[in-house]
Every structure is written in C-alpha cells, then in structure tokens.
Amino acid sequence: MYLFAAEGGAEHNPIIPLWQEIVVGTVAFALLCYVLMKFVFPRMEQTFQARVEAIEGGIKRAEAAQAEANQLLEQYRAQLAEARTDAARIRDDARADAEGIRQDVLAKAREESDRIIAAGKEQLAAERATIVRELRTEVGTLAVDLAGKIVGESLADEARRKGTVERFLTDLESTGAR
Amino acid sequence: MSSSLAAEVPWPPSVEDFYLPPIVAGTDPWFTKVTLLVWVAVAALIIFFLVTYRDPKLVPTKRQWIAESIYGFVRNSVAKDLIGHDGVRFAPYLTTLFCFVLLTNLFGIVPGIQLSPNSHIAFPAVLAVISWALFNYIGIRQHGFAKYMKNSLVPPAPWFILPILIPIEFMSTFIFRPFTLAVRLFANMFAGHMILLVFTLGGFVMLNSNAWLAPVSVLSWLMAIALTFLEAMVIVLQAYVFTVLTASYVQGALAEEH
C-alpha cells in the first residue's frame, strides 16, 4: 500500500509544510508556552529568589549572631580584666592593711613592754628605796642597841639627839659610793 | 512467514513513509500520528511541569529538582551566557522551546513511536517563525525600527562595499535565519528517520530475498540500533542548537552595534 503511494510519485513534498500541521503546531505550541510561561517558570524564578534570600538571610543572621557573640566576648573580657584589677587592688590593700596592723601591734607591744619594764624598774627602785630606808633605820637601831649593850648604857637618845647614826651611815654611803 | 513479510515491507523507503494515513478516516491531515504526537508532547510537558511544580519548596524534592534543573540549565547556560544578565527574561520561552523540541525529537527513537513530528517541516517552521518574530520584535523595541534596521543591515565597512553588503546582510538576517533554523531541525530529523528506515527495512528485505543474506540482515539491524544511539545524540544536539541560535539572534538584536 505504502509502496504504491511511493510509486505514485511526489504526492508530498517534504519541504512544503502542510497548512493544517502549521495550525496544529501553532496552537499546540502556543498552549504549551502559555501554561509553562505563565504558571511554571515565573514560580521557579520566585523559588530561586526565595532560595537566594533564604541563604542570604541565613548568612546575615549568622553574621549578626557572630557580631553579638564577639561583643559579648569582648564585654566578658573587659569585665574579667576589671575583676582582676580589682582583685589585685584588694590584695594590695589587704597586704598594706596587714602590714599596718602588724606595725601597730608591734608598736603597741613594744610600748606595753617598755611600760611594763619601766613600771617594774620604778617599783624595784621604790622597793629598794623603802628597803634602804628600813635597813637604814634598822641598822641604826641595831648598831645603837649593840653599841649600847657593849658600852652598857642607853645611847639611843644620845644618838638620836646628835644624829650620829645618820652621819655615820651617810659617811658610809659616800665612802661606798666612792 | 517470511514471504508474507516480504510482501508487506515497503521498499525503498520514501517520502511517503513520513505521511502516515490519518488515525480516524477522513480527518487527514488534521489527526495523524505526527499531530497526535505534538499534542502528546504538549500534554506531557504541561503535566510534568505542573505536577512537579505544584507545590515548590525551598529545599526541592527530587522531581522538583529535575524540573528546576531543566529550567536552570537553559536559564544559566543559554539565556544568561549568551544574552547576558538581561537574558533571564527570555529564559521561560527558551526553556519551553528547548523542552518542546527535545521531546518531539525524542519521539523519533522511542520504541513503538519512532517518528518525530519535527520530520514534518511544518513544526520546525512554526518554531523558526516565532524565533524570527521574537528577535525582530525585541530589536525594534530596543532600538526603534530605523536604528534596528541600521544595526542589522549596515556593517561598519567602507561605503563603496555597502551596496553589496546590505543585500547580503538583509538576506542572511531576515530570510536565511528562519529558513536555516527550520530546515536544520527538519532535515536532521527527516534524515535520521530515513536512515533508521533504511537499515531496519533493509534487514527485512535482505532476509526475505535470500536466506544466505540473513547474517547481513542481522548486521543491518545491529546498525539500526547503533544508529539509534547516534540519533539520540543528534536529537539532544539539535534541540540545544535551536535554542542556542534563537538566544544568539535575540542577543544580536539587543546588541548596540552591528
């Protein structure tokens, strides 16, 4: 059947388009263009754009977060440095205070000891003076008593009257002192 | 069996093999295999893109990704590369063109169909005329009619050569461009189908004429299979070339100087 058609001569010329096919092609392709170019590809562009924005937004957000983190870090560092300075200052102060307190305590202790020593010395001197005075009286009495016993009469009034004992003892002291 | 085949094998393949009888009697040539295939291609593309892009997500699904890749390929590798940043607004048409040509070409090697509508010059001619109208319209809108004509027709050359150059430029830009665009696609598809017919039908003819030629007819069929793969390459290439040339004509119309 095809064979006969072929032998039947150039019923169709392949380079001459059939007008019916042109109509079909135009209508079909126009329909395809209309649907795809109106409903599909613009939405793809929108999706691409949204994707770009999503990525760029993500990057921007990340950058903001990074900046905030850096700022916080900087702040913490500043605070830490400040705290360190404070701590050092407090330590220094404490050390200075301690030194001052130590000095005070030492000074007070020294004063106290000096005072105690002085008091002791005074007391000793006073006691000594008392003892010396008592001794002097006693020694004088004893000596007069002894001399009276030896001499056989009471010399006490005589001695008191004339200050013999006192003179003797004073002489004795000045001799001893010399 | 073989003798009955021999009677039915049309030999040699001819132009009439491209003009199949109508599917419903009396509708010729409104409703033939090729026009049906054109409608099938249009329907398939519309359904594919509408289904894959019904609910687009920022993170694409696999099918959405495929649809986006097709559009992205034409948008970035053809429209943007050839026309420049301005080319993105032509990307939807170029993608539609590319998909339509690719799918209608592909029918030429799909088993069971094996006839491309583009082997009828009417369809490439329609596409070529649209491309021609598109680039002229873009050029006139960009520069105004007079400046566009001057850009297109008057090359920067000494004045005494212009009488020769202007007719050549006119012919090449306004006559040969749509003609070559249409004929290039049509001829490739026509020749591809013809070659496959020759090797496939030739195998039957040889087998039927002489049993001793059976090995040669097997070789002939193997050749037909190999040439189908070659045809696959031609199909993709021609779809790409048609799209690229259209983009390049648009770019030329948009360009400031000749």
Write structural notes for this entry.
Chain B: InterPro entries: ATP_synth_F0_asu, ATP_synth_F0_asu_AS, ATP_synth_F0_asu_bact/mt, F0_ATP_A_sf. Chain B: It is found in: Cell membrane; Membrane. Chain B: Belongs to the ATPase A chain family. Chain B: This is ATP synthase subunit a. The complex is a heterodimer of chains A (178) and B (258). With 178 residues, chain A is mainly α. Chain A has one domain. Chain A has helices at 2-7, 19-151, 156-162, 164-177. The longest helix of chain A is centred in the middle third of the chain and has 133 residues, at 19-151. The model of chain A is unreliable at 1-10 (pLDDT under 50). Chain B has one domain.
| Percent in helix of chain A | over 70%
Please name the two chains that share the biggest interface, counting residues whose Cβ lies under 8 Å from a Cβ on the partner chain: A-B, 42 and 50 residues
- Work out the oligomeric state of the chains in this entry: heterodimer
Largest sheet of chain B: none
> What's the average pLDDT of chain B?
89
Name the overall outline of chain A: rod-shaped
- Beta-strand share of residues of chain A: under 5%
* N-end to C-end Cα span of chain B: 65 Å
From the alpha-carbon coordinates, what is the Rg of chain B to the nearest angstrom?
23 Å
Structural class of chain B: mainly alpha
- The helix/strand series of chain B, from N terminus to C terminus, equals HHHHHHHH
> What's the total number of strands of chain B?
0
Task: Determine the strand fraction of chain B and express it as a percent band.
Answer: under 5%
What low-confidence regions of chain B span 5 or more consecutive residues with pLDDT below 50?
none
Q: How many helices of chain A? A: 4
Mean pLDDT of chain A: 85
Query: How big is the Rg of chain A?
Result: 67 Å
Number of helices of chain B: 8
* N-to-C series of helices and strands of chain A: HHHH
General shape of chain B: globular
